[in-house]
Design a protein that fits this description.
68% helix, 3 domains, single chain, mainly alpha, 16 helices, globular, V-type ATP synthase subunit C fold
């Protein structure tokens, strides 16, 4: 029988995470970047936070630099995590991203190399070869099942959107099972919040496209705190009852923004509110002295930080007004 991991087994890595939190981009630091008089001044602030030089005029190079920073963080913390599955929850989405790229490139007879991200549980080259050969036994079981189903759907329908939906459904199922297997209520709650955010986004997009509840039924994800059976009637009522359904939850503000989006309001505000609701859940990690919660919270905060960096730098590079950029920044728990 495997040794049960206790909160105290995370004492060392929790202390490291608490120290590393001081390097996160606080709202004050983001304001400094936003108000910097030159790109050089903005980059100097980022370099003081440990980032390499990021060039917003070359989005591909900037994304590569952010990917390298993300990979270094995951690798660094994986070495000290008593249970590697906490890291896996953050890595497995890259497996599914790569699977999407490989399958669609294969169908179009193109090279997916520039789209692959070597940060998953499975190396990008290994995954590509497994899909090419059809020998999926070496892959994690759920990923193997996901690839097999998505490949069949793509071959049958030639619809890349349906292929993506299949892989997204398996990705959330995979995350949910990994989180549940750890026995961590905090990690499971984080995954659940992500599923709820994804389902709310899907509801609003479905309504904006003029699709019905039968379409929605096929694209909702199981495992959220709000049952899919409670979401479908809102779609059938063309959005009526959305604010009431989410009012008792942390997604209240997101749902209200969703109602506005259905009336012609901006999707950007709605998307931000969905992300902020997940961030609100993670803020609970700040009050946990040790255990897996600080580790999960820190890794998720880093993911939010990468999103904010892209918004900041790309917005500055495009000459977008500071107040507009500011309105798009996601809330962090620091």
């Amino acid at each position: 029988m495997a040794k049960k991991i206790k909160d105290t087994d995370y004492l060392v890595i929790s202390a490291r995470v608490k120290a590393m939190e001081s390097g996160l981009l606080t709202r004050e630091r983001m304001e400094q970047i936003l108000e910097a008089r030159s790109d050089e001044e903005a980059l100097k602030i980022l370099q003081d936070c440990g980032y390499p030089e990021l060039d917003a005029t070359d989005p591909e190079a900037m994304d590569a630099a952010l990917s390298a920073a993300r990979e270094a963080t995951l690798s660094d913390l994986a070495d000290g995590a008593p249970d590697p599955r906490y890291i896996d929850v953050f890595k497995l989405k890259y497996d599914y991203h790569n699977a999407k790229a490989i399958l669609k490139a294969e169908a179009m007879n193109t090279d997916p190399g520039h789209m692959l991200m070597d940060m998953g549980r499975v190396g990008a080259a290994e995954l590509r070869e497994a899909i090419r050969s059809g020998e999926l036994d070496s892959l994690p079981p759920l990923l193997a099942s996901a690839v097999a189903e998505a490949k069949e759907v793509l071959q049958t329908t030639r619809d890349p959107q349906l292929c993506d939906i299949v892989l997204d459904r398996w990705a959330y199922r995979d995350m949910d099972q990994v989180a549940e297997a750890t026995g961590s209520a905090f990690l499971h709650g984080y995954v659940q919040a992500q599923i709820d955010a994804a389902n709310l986004r899907t509801l609003v997009r479905t309504l904006r496209m003029g699709k019905n509840e039968e379409f929605l039924r096929g694209v909702l994800f199981e495992g959220g705190g709000i049952p899919t059976d409670a979401i479908l009637p809102v779609c059938a009522a063309r959005g009526s009852g959305m604010a009431e359904l989410y009012a008792p939850t942390r997604f209240q503000a997101a749902a209200e923004a969703g109602v506005q989006a259905l009336q012609g309001g901006p999707l950007t505000e709605f998307e931000k509110r969905c992300d902020d609701a997940v961030g609100d859940y993670l803020s609970g990690a700040l009050f946990v002295p040790f255990g897996e919660a600080p580790l999960v919270g820190y890794l998720a905060a880093r993911e939010t930080e990468y999103t904010n960096l892209r918004i900041l730098l790309m917005g500055r590079g495009a000459g977008i007004a500071p107040e507009v950029i500011r309105s798009r920044l996601r809330e962090s728990y620091v």
